[in-house]
């Protein structure tokens, strides 16, 4: 432990300047800010912090509020799996309880305690989480995959004839919202306005409050409707669960689920598509059949977890983590992005992590993401179906032109322009089929996202259903139908 590293926990009777005081020195050799110019490249900053402090490092949040960032894989796992030592209830965080953090702090939306399962602990956490997981468990995975496939088909139909698209604004930002609106029980609320409102609310622009209100109004209407007359959907199961959630609790959990699912899954889709389009190793392994789309998604969860960090966990007692003395009331950032790159578990970052799911992308312990199967299914089926339809897809700009919008919590690709030979529309209710392309342009080894089966009747078609294209050839039969069905069923 270096001398700088003990400032947050020092119990010396003649302590130095308080945390955040400029006397500590900022920049090289001193404390680092996770905001402003210091944080232009957070990935690089985390590596420098790892070198300087080891697996747990002191940093400053906005307004120079002190925090620990957990960089080690094992230390992150220990953090989330030790509920007797760390809590997600921010009310015990010293800078909040002593007034250092003001109500207008820019990170307050992440920090402020709310009556939702992410911030609760013990029996209260159990009560809320059991209702959420029970509502999720009623979901039929076949139906879920069919919704995802249908919405993917509908989205691709919107741009397939043009030969060009931006896969962030026209695909990755839409698919999770379309699927989540189905899951929650409000498919009629999915439209461009809803996607834009959610994106705007998360970006925190001047119109964020208005956009947030737009989403919340839809969730309030849904709660009222299902309280009056439950149906067969996530919201109805939440409303009727024996845990007895109030209308406010139902609304807040719908908001938690919708925003967490939307942001994380949109990032995952964009990251995974960026990887398959730009990384030659990925493309080669996918096209050579050594890697399936679900394996590519898993690799993306290792390399670019959709939430870079989660704010935060708070120490309930004095303790030690990664060689640092943590004091009761200290705050810690759970950090999947640097944790997944810990050289102690990944000495060679270019080595494939195929078959290894021990990344930190979904957290762990009592708060581990309960929606991970849904997030994975949206990404697996969505990417697979898209590549199946647009098998000659190419990046339509130099890779260096790609830009990200970064915050402490996540890194969002701004756009992902692609080009391909224009393709005909397809029926949204049947599995995607590849369209003939010149042989040298095609090269994806996709895994057929949906089983061949009688199409479901769709009460809310995403686009008009065109007749199947007469010249569309049958997909190549690489596996038997039974093998493909099993493969799909197991989500592989
Ligand atoms: C790729 C997609 C997703 C990723 C990477 C992701 C990641 C995470 C992470 C890191 C956490 C915090 C874990 C912790 O505090 O230790 C979390 C919590 C949560 N996620 Fe996800 N998530 C994803 C998709 C979803 C989906 C689709 C849903 C709902 C359908 C969902 C619902 C939740 C909920 C309700 C929590 C709070 C759980 C609790 O505190 O007990 N997530 N997620």
Automatic annotation (TrEMBL):
Region annotation Disordered: where it falls in the sequence: 1-29, 423-478
InterPro entries: Cyt_P450_B, Cyt_P450_CS, Cyt_P450_sf
Compositional bias (Low complexity): 451-460
Listed Polar residues bias regions: 1-12
Single GO MF descriptor: heme binding
Domain of life the protein comes from: Bacteria
Biased composition (Pro residues): 461-474
Signal sequence, renumbered to the chain: none
Family in the record: Belongs to the cytochrome P450 family.
Name the record gives this protein: Cytochrome
Source species: Streptomyces fodineus
